[in-house]
Amino acid sequence: MKYNMKKLIPLLLTGAILLTGCGKAENQNTTKNQPQDDAASIGGFLPSGSELLVPQKAGKKQSIYLNAQAGGENKEAFLLYRNPSDNRQAHLLYLTKEKDTWQKKEDIETGFLGFDTFELIDLDGDGAKEAIVGGTVSESGHDNQLTIYKLEKDGLKKAGELSYDALSIEDYTDDKIPDLMAITKKQDETRAAGLYSYKAGALTLISQIDLDPQGMFEHAAFGTLADGKKALYADSGLGAHSMLTEIIVYNNGTLSKVGDPSDSVLLKPYPLYSRDLNGDGIIEVGGMYSPKGYEDAAMAEIPFIYTYQDYKLDGSFQVVEERYADNGQHFYISFPRELYEGVTVKRLDDGVELLSTQGDALLFQVKWASKEAVPADAVLLASTKDTAFYTESKSETKIPASAFHLMEEELN
């Protein structure tokens, strides 16, 4: 029998709240019920006052996972929760079902502050799924711990463990079986990227490559190159404020890096994380360059133009977007493709003008003020709780008003 998770999770939440006021269920080790009562019965296994947890980076953002082996009805259930009376550590509750009876097999004290990921995947191609549980052990978001469990009748059996900073579960070797790509910390505190397979109940390292030893790892993105190859994008801080992006792929039996690490996109003067900018699955690498007129300016005074590029396996790349971003005022302005490398910036007291590098023609103007101070004949571009963004330009410009965005729009 299949269950609608959108209906199931609220029921379980309700069960946890009711338990707070009514005490524990009569018997939290076994419950016999009709199939349609599974939701309430599973919720009854949660300790009083429990708080359900959602893994931050799981493919499915939920707190309860049901598993049906070989296409049958659900036979296993996993509940991710926190018990406030138990040092608020994260728990993994594992239930199995025989006929109409749910039984609690294990309630694992993970030691995690929270869950980073949870997946039910057949890792070795034997037709049975493994439970992949990743958790955070520090507030930094790094130093996570991964445990792989085999699902057995008498409980969960640990079948592999790994400390990691970032993790992806995909078929990187093109053998139709998932692999694990992870960034891990070495003994000397530097980082490495490793590709692992799961065979015979254990994790096996296929290939490993060091990240730049001078870098301080900050962020990872997983996706594809422009020509379809799956890749890991690792963004690391260098020196006082620079950032290096390293693109790592599995190719010809080993992990290798894509592109020239000294190019102006992979190595940038300030942090700019890699991400899928347009939702097509291809990860864009962020870079920046100094616009015309700022060649001799101090680094802190340069209004950098941001450029986002798609890389291919051979190291070549193409520009996907250029924009001007004002991190202080939290907005950005995207450029039409025909203006790439053709825009410079003029700062005003409370505004910015974007000018053409060919003749200084006005391409876009934005000013900001309190809502009460906006001129009556101004064109409003956007507004926040405290600030209005507007233009006083009366003529049509090559960069349209629709190119102006508040940064919060990109986060939604």
UniProtKB/TrEMBL annotation:
Keywords: Signal. PROSITE patterns: PROKAR_LIPOPROTEIN. Residues 1-25 form the signal peptide. InterPro entries: Integrin_alpha_N (IPR028994). It comes from the Bacteria. This is FG-GAP repeat protein.
